[in-house]
Amino acid sequence: MKHKSKKLNKYSKAKKNKKTNKLDKINELSVFFKSDKTSEQSQKSTTVQSNKKAKPDKLSKKAIQAKSDRAMKIISIGSPTLAVLFICFFMFKQFGNAPATAHGTITQYTESAVITTERVAESAVTTPEFTPETASISDGSIPAGMQETEEISLAYNEYTEDFFDNILFIGDSISGGFSGFEYLKPENVFSKIGLNPSSALTDKILDVNDKNKSEKTVAQKAVEFQADYLCIMLGTNGMSYLEPEYMIDKMQLLIDELKTEAPNSKLVLMTIPPVSYEYEIAEPDNIKLDHILKYNELLKDFAVQNDCLLVDVYSLLCDKSGYYNDKLVDADGVHCHANAYPIILHEVEMTIRESQK
Questions:
Q1: Residue 246: pLDDT above 70?
Q2: What is the pTM of this model?
Q3: Using CB atoms within 10 A as the burial measure, which of 43, 106, 143, 271 is most buried?
Q4: Could you give the CA distance from residue 277 to residue 329 in angstroms, rounded to a whole number?
Q5: CA torsion sign, 216 to 219 to 224 to 225?
Q6: CA atoms within a 13 Å half-sphere pointing along the CA-CB vector of 238
């Protein structure tokens, strides 16, 4: 009996020692996790918030001991798999602040980026908005499109409104913008969408100023109006299907008719505007810049040969590439923006005044 009691005591003592060894190992593991976490927190705290101390570990010694006891209990009932899972869970809880710390770091950098962006925005130089008050050519002797800068001064978009009281503008929808944007009175503009030098010879155009709303040809309107100057801008609508030489031939017929029917009216020919680069890319089979350039060159020679004044609208509205200045072109890439019209009117007025000297 004594032998059996000694054997039992020896077994209990061995079991107790085994339990103590396991507990010591778990405690060592806990202390390792704790010290590792504290080291990691200290490192992150130094990087993100150098002026702040690392946060103390959330788990107290009592909590660690309690968790160790639970682990020991699981091991003692012969469930090593659950013990491993518990230890993994324990590790996760110990390092549970790492993602939060990382998130805090990201948040801090994000806030810093927003602040930096706001400071840059505050210090950035704002480009002045383009308005009719700043629209014109940069130099009196060089057209706007040939300038090193697209800055356009106030002096070159001013015009005298009553100067145009007895001047009639003839053309297509581009000319219609003079009255459409209210730079000129409706009675000073005789235009039709799609008009070109050929159709201007025969097309009937609604006279909005006629009480009877009658339709007239260009020559009939010229006879009725008896303008001091007839300003003609035609050709854009023929660019896609008529040859420049053909339109010049038709322009010759129109000018001859106007000289015959309205001999007291002096004639002012206007080159046609460019198109935008984006328009030419999007509409490769429509109006092309090289056709415009060819037509305008022919028109300049034509004006000299027929003793007509010339206003080079193209050079007023193009940029250095030869395409429309993007501040002076409408969204469709063909028509003039509202800002372009006072520039044109200024040049028309200056050209006429110069011819009167």
A1: yes
A2: 0.59
A3: 271
A4: 11
A5: positive
A6: 24
